[in-house]
Amino acid sequence: MNSVILSRACRVVLGLGILLVAACAAPPKSAQAVHPVETTTVESALYDQYQAWQGTAYRYGGMSKAGVDCSGFVYLTYRDQLGMQLPRTTLHQSRIGQAVSPQQLQAGDLVFFLTGPNTRHVGIALDKHRFVHASKSKGVVVSSLANDYWQQTLWQARRVY
User: Fold this and answer.
1) Domains of the chain: which residue ranges?
2) How many angstroms separate the CA atoms of 136 and 2, rounded?
3) CATH number of 31-159
């Protein structure tokens, strides 16, 4: 066997072993990548998810097309489209990854809002201006971050991949 091919195969096996050990040892509050996704693919995957879920009704605690809440939609999107395991709740999702400014938003960044004294909301940035989320009034929709309501309630943005 060609030594270059053998060397690459050894690096892949070693890398997979390291990833497996790291995933088992990782704290539960971090996102765990099943496979990395390129940024250009993220936007396409998000639009695929949006098209499949568009209009799905909001249901607190929901995790299906019969009804889904905001953190459930984020959880399912990351799992099914991006191959990453995120925490299930908005609060726990808000504690993972790295903070980014709204001006630095990229497709796949999580955007968090404080919509009431003890109420949080989460969506996924499609770009610097729009995000997809499970809205209580409209179900799964794309909204503008330029909207006054979303600008006033924006709490933070986080990059988890």
Assistant:
1) 1-28, 31-159
2) 58
3) 3.90.1720.10
Q: What pTM was estimated for this model as a whole?
A: 0.76
Residue 129 appears among annotated catalytic residues: no
Point out the catalytic residue in the list 24, 35, 70, 129. Answer: 70
Q: Among 152, 154, 135, 131, which Cα is nearest to 143's?
A: 131
Q: Give the span between the Cα atoms of 90 and 110, in whole angstroms.
A: 10
121 is catalytic: yes
Report the relative pairing of strands 98-100 and 84-85 from DSSP bridges. Answer: unpaired
**Segment 44-99, tens digit of pLDDT:** 999 999 999 999 999 999 999 999 999 999 999 999 999 999 999 999 999 999 99
24 catalytic? Reply is: no
120, 111 contact by CB (below 8 A): no
Of 10, 92, 121, 129, the active-site residue reads 121
